[in-house]
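[job 4471] stage=fold_predict status=RUNNING
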Amino acid sequence: MQSPRTIGRTRLLPQVRFQPGAIALAITAVMGFWGCGGGSAPPRSSTLTPTPSATINVTVTPNSITLSPGTTQSFTAEVTGATNTAVIWGVQESVGGTINGVGFYTAPNAVGFYHVVATSIEETTVTARATVTVATTSSGFTPTGSLREARGLHTATLLPDNKVLVAYGSNSSAYTNATGYVGLSSIELYDAGTGTFTEIVGEDGAGTFGHTATLLPNGKVLLAGGFVNSVWDYGGSTSYNKATLYDSATGVFSGTGNMTASRGGHTATLLANGKVLIAGGADQDPTGTGLASAELYDPTSGTFTQTGSMAVGRFLHTATLLQNGRVLIVGGVLTSTSDPVATAEVYDPATGIFTMTGAMATARERHTATLLADGRVLIVGGTTFTGTGNLHPTVTVEIYDPTTGSFSVTGSMAEARTFHTATLLPNGKVLVAGGGDENSTVEIYDPATGSFSITGGMAIGRSGHTATRLSNGSVLFAGGGIFAGLASAELYQ
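[job 4471] inference complete, writing structure tokens
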């Protein structure tokens, strides 16, 4: 991951519609909801609400909620660092409902995503907002145990015993001098039976993010590459070529062969023959250049060997194993300052060769790619170039058809997303959640209709989180936060 791309370029500020007379004293009572990302993260995307003052801060409670059409909710605001703790209440969207001077909100009758905004009277450039999902269905999310260490940009791997291995990631809020990501070295296990996380590897100050984690047929997990830095000597991050194995049966970590190239922000795909395809990645963060090279990991010998190279160097791309055994590589970017690409390639394990296939209609990076039950691949959201000098999240969605080798546009999302998750549900639909400025909103894509529907949101906004489907069909959402990590987790069922 490249922090300049995360922070973004010039961004457009949201337009807020204030309700007549909506000025209220802030209430300092804190209800049972967390602030979005703890309120301490620096700007991470074009959708962020600005908080330019370093001393005055506004928080809104609840930060995220799902309401039925036409129902009501009371919001409170807390202002710190100001003499005048009053706020002006408003609703960002013109059709997003109404709110009065004491934070009493009435939802509109139309289903959608809306935002309640509290603005400091003493410093009107300092605002905070809460996300309101108006839906006819209730939220399917319930809280579960929290991570032992707050983190985002980590990996989460379902193990054969239905536990989840959560590895590494980033939490820059623990290091005030950091101007980018600070990697973590800790590893945890989630037990679905008890709903708790247990730390199995402690934090040592030198951590990793932008790595991959792949469950092998023998039950071991291959942790490969990533960007490495240390809180003791912070100065950006370099990629490395190390790999580690975790044995889920014994709980033992062991070394294995090194990759042929140092890389972070790459992809790792388990092939039908049991080998793992490692493709692309960047050489460093935050000013890296994408690699075109690829290599194969053989669990039998514990070694990496080079295979054919991609036609385009890329990182922040996706790699999806198709039903025919080939691997679809989509999008990404060549350098931290270049625009995303629309190109796609297919890797054939039988020949070890990448071949260009049809291009997307929209160039994108940090998107998701989900294999559908019918063999097509759903490409959702991501960051794209708008043509105005800015990179912004996109609502656009496309489908790749392996039988034709082409992409086609399908229904768009209601919310633009990047750093989100997209999870195939047992019913064949796809659950798309979070992203952007630690967004709490959720949508469901139905391949039968080619459209999205709004559903109840998460209790906490997340971006850079993980979503892992468990054996019982429920989905574990863990952590998030691009710079300031989150420890909370919840289940969708």
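[job 4471] summary: The two ends are 30 Å apart (CA to CA).
[job 4471] exit 0
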